[in-house]
Amino acid sequence: MLLTVKALQGRECSLQVSPEESVGALKALVAERLQVPVEQQRLLFHGKGCRRTKPQIPANSGKFQQIPVVWGIFRGYFWGSFGFNLELFWGDFWGWFWVILGFIWGYFCVIFGLFLGNFGLVLGLFLGYFGGRL
């Protein structure tokens, strides 16, 4: 399959790889083509970091696939101009929103003597975990 790897400064290269290719091998190819050291690369595929030995690239697509390579030193991580994915950001935002709302509900129930406080805390944790993923 053909992958296009896009770097921070807008440089990109196309790589022909098999779906069985490991992330380490893919990073070695990127290091060779874009002159970015392997230890400074962070590969993203569909908004998720490729940290496993296999990048889990769907072999059935046959479509144009793009993997951004993000780097630049920030708190020990390597980020680019688009170092976060909006989809993941909103997922995290709504997850935390439901957690905080559940805790507020729980404390409200405790303060006013309602017996639903624990239910609110559990519901907030549940919605916090699944709320951004629904």
From TrEMBL:
Q: Which InterPro entries match?
A: Ubiquitin-like_dom (IPR000626), Ubiquitin-like_domsf (IPR029071), UBL4B (IPR043317)
Tell me which SMART domains the record gives: UBQ
> What are the TM regions of this chain, as residue ranges?
none
Return the Gene3D superfamilies for the record: Phosphatidylinositol 3-kinase Catalytic Subunit, Chain A, domain 1
- PROSITE patterns, per the entry: UBIQUITIN_2
What SUPFAM superfamilies does the record point to? Ubiquitin-like
Q: Mind telling me which PANTHER family this protein's record contains? A: UBIQUITIN-LIKE PROTEIN 4B (PTHR47905:SF1)
Query: In its UniProt entry, what is this protein called?
Result: Uncharacterized protein
